[in-house]
């Protein structure tokens, strides 16, 4: 069992390195292998190994969540940039929404 536990520990370390490197292609197969190992492991008697596995799994979960939040922020920012390229919306003196085309001309800024 400790061989499986040690293998699982190495896979968790490899997943952590892949997340830090942004190597998303490596995460899919590693995730599948970690799942398979977790399903195969019964009871591990080594309390120190169990503690390390929990700590590393928690660390990986935090890193994956941070990476997901970063990807969401990047997607949102790309959408904002695309919206600015398409033009912008503003309101006229009567409160009606109007669109201003982004034709490359300079907009006048009033202070």
Q: How would you describe what is shown here?
A:
The protein has 111 residues and is mainly α. The chain has three helices and two strands, in the order αααββ.
The main sheet comes to: 2 strands, antiparallel
Strand content: 5-15%
Helix/strand-derived category reads: mainly alpha
What is the rounded Rg?
25 Å
Rounded to the nearest angstrom, the distance between the terminal CA atoms is: 72 Å
Strand order of the largest sheet: 1-2
Q: Spell the H/E element sequence.
A: HHHEE
- Backbone shape: rod-shaped
- The number of distinct helices, counting runs of at least 4 residues, comes to 3
The percentage helix is 55-70%
Low-pLDDT runs of 5+ residues are: none
Let me know the number of strands.
2
Mean pLDDT: 86
Features:
two-stranded antiparallel sheet, 111 residues, 69% helix, mainly alpha
Quick structural overview:
The protein has 111 residues and is mainly alpha-helical. It has helices spanning 2-21, 24-40, 47-86, and strands at 88-91, 97-100.
What are the SSEs and their pairings?
Layout: H1 2-21, H2 24-40, H3 47-86, E1 88-91, E2 97-100
Antiparallel strand pairs: 1-2
């Amino acid at each position: 069992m400790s061989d499986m536990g040690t293998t699982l520990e190495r896979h968790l370390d490899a997943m952590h390195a892949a997340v830090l490197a942004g190597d998303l292609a490596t995460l899919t197969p590693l995730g599948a292998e970690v799942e398979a190992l977790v399903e195969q492991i019964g009871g591990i008697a080594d309390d120190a190994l169990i503690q390390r596995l929990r700590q590393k799994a928690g660390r990986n979960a935090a890193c994956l969540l941070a990476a997901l939040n970063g990807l969401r922020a990047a997607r949102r920012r790309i959408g904002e940039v695309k919206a600015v390229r398409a033009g912008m919306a503003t309101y006229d003196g009567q409160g009606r929404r109007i669109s201003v085309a982004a034709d490359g001309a300079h907009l006048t800024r009033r202070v």
